[in-house]
Structures are given as structure tokens and as C-alpha cells.
Amino acid sequence: MSTINAKTYESVAPSRVAFLGLGVMGFPMAGHLLRAGHTVTVYNRTSAKSQAWLDAVATPERARSAATPREAAQGADIVFACVGNDDDLRSVTQGADGAFAGMTAGSVFVDHTTASANVARELYAAAQSLGLSFIDAPVSGGQAGAENGALTVMCGGDQPAFDRVRPVGMAFAKAFTQVGESGAGQLAKMVKQICIAGLVQGLSEAIAFGQHAGLDMNLVLDVIGKGAAQSWQLDNRGKTMVADQFNFGFAVDWMRKDLGLVLDEARQNGARLPVTALVDQFYADVQRMGGNRWDTSSLIKRLQKPAD
User: Which one of the listed residues 189, 192, 239, 257 is annotated catalytic?
Assistant: First the structure.
């Protein structure tokens, strides 16, 4: 089960908020909102997760669960969500039991799902027609970032809505930044995943090359990490790749979902992404090896010498 680690919170006026989706990210994110002093109503498709969250919180007087997104959103100043994909996002926002039906005019829906820019623009328009605001706000930092309240949040939407949301969202973030109009948050997350795909493949090839050459790769990583080859991936995943450890971090299945969004967007906007498309297929190879839930650094498994 996800944990909620200690953090020093900014002093902000308490708000009534809802959080939809209590997966490995949403569970601790909702917890940080509560610990920052807000009143939090949670919803999860599987009600047992909502109960587990209630059981874990230290201030139950400001926490409750709801049976539907609409019920969770009623009376909330801000509704946060972190679900699986475009269709999940539509299901928690729209329809008779969706959050939009329960929200009060002037309130803000903040979507932390990694989804398409198209669905962000679609729901932004739907929210506007109801007198609501919608911010697309995908996150970076993974489960550890969510648990430590240290996520990086990339936001698209209107400035006034962003300004209302940011002080509250900083409960689970180290950076909460508006990068443009509706859809821009999702596009920024795609840029980040393009960078990571190339970095991890390059690091995989470098480590595999060194292993084939008989080098002490832990020593080599220490040396090259002090120069121009340094990166977060090298610092945090290099030695675990050498050790053949992939039981943590961002799963291959999730990365393939994200890269699918990237490649779909590229087909629409005309961007050429030959390396990203190739790395996506390399991740498909890892899935065929049974590595669906391995960390994304498991790309190296394709390149390592078979055991003698």
C-alpha cells in the first residue's frame, strides 16, 4: 500500500477538496492534501481503497469517502483526479454520476492523469459550458515523488484557475507550473517522456557495451557521472541496471501507454520522432519478455549477454 511521508507544508487557507482515484499516486497525494489542513472527500472505483485511505489518515474528522464522483465533488472548491486514461477520465467527469454534475459554478477540476491533449481540451470546453474551470496537470516524480510530496506538476489552462489551484496543489508538489493554455500540460508531459525514452535507451546501450567489454560498470558510472554524461537516470538507475534490479519505479506498461499518447500526438502535429518510435517497440520487446511491471530501466534486458 502507498505511504504518506512527512513534509513541511506552505501555509494556505483551508479548502474543501475532492480527490478521485486512489492508486499508487492518488493515495498519497490525497493524504498530503489532508495533512496540509484541507477537508478531503475521496472517491475510488474500488471502494475498499477508499476505506483503506480513511483507515490510514490521522485526522478522520476532515476526511470522508463518497460513492460516486458526483457525490465527492459536491461542495468542493477544487476537485483533483488521478485515474488511468482518457476513458477513465471521461467516466469520472461526465454523466449523471460524474464530477461535473456535482460541482458548483466557479469551482475547478484538476486532472493529474497522464492523458491526451485532446481529452484535456474536450473536458476544458465541457467544463466551461457549465461555468466550471478545468486544468490539465500531469505529474512527474513517480510513486516516490507522490509519497514525499515532491511531484513536478505541468499545467495547462486559464491563469485565474491555475492561481487558485497552485497553493493547494503544492501540498503534494515541489513545483506546480503553468506552461500554457488547455492541453499544454499534457504536451509538456509528452516532451518529458520523449526525453526519458532516449536517455534510458542510451544508458542501456552504454552499460551493456561496458559489460560486454568486461569493465567494472559501477566504477565507470561513478567516473562518467561526474562529467557531461551525468543525468538523473544515470544517478538513480545506472547501478540498479548493472545489478539487474527492476522491481521499482515507473512500469513498462505505463511507459508504453504514455509513448502511445506521444506518437498519436506526433501524427497530428507533424513532429518526427524516429528514436521515440523505436524505443516504444523496444519496450514492446520487454513486455514480450514478461517485463510489463518492470521499471522502465529494464530496456537493458534486451541487450545483456545470456547467462552462461
Answer: 189
Which H or E element spans position 108?
strand 108-111
Rounded-to-10 torsion of CA 31, 11, 138, 163: 140
d(CA 55, CA 200): 38
**Nearest-angstrom CA–CA distance, 39 and 33:** 8
Bridge partners for 18 per DSSP: 41, 79
CA 53 from centroid of its chain's CA atoms: 19
Catalytic residue at 174?
A: no
13, 77, 85, 70: which is closest to 40 by C-alpha?
77
What end-to-end distance do the CA atoms of the chain give, in Å? 38
C-alpha cell of residue 102: 456535482
Class of residue 64 by CB neighbours under 10 A (exposed 0-12, middle 13-18, buried 19+): middle
The domains of the chain, with CATH numbers, are 16-181 (3.40.50.720), 188-302 (1.10.1040.10)
Q: Which three cell numbers stand for residue 263?
A: 506518437
Averaged pLDDT, groups of 10, the chain, 308 residues long? 75 96 97 97 97 92 97 98 98 98 98 98 98 98 94 98 98 98 98 98 98 97 98 97 93 97 98 98 97 97 75
Per-residue b/e over 66-100, b at no fewer than 16 CB within 10 Å? Answer: bebbbbbbbebbbbbbbbbbbebbbbbbbeeebbb
Long-range contact list for 285-288, CB < 8 A, 24+ apart? 286/252, 287/252, 287/253, 287/256
Count of residues making up the chain: 308
Q: Which residue has the cell 501555509?
A: 11
In whole angstroms, give the CA distance from residue 140 to residue 25. 10
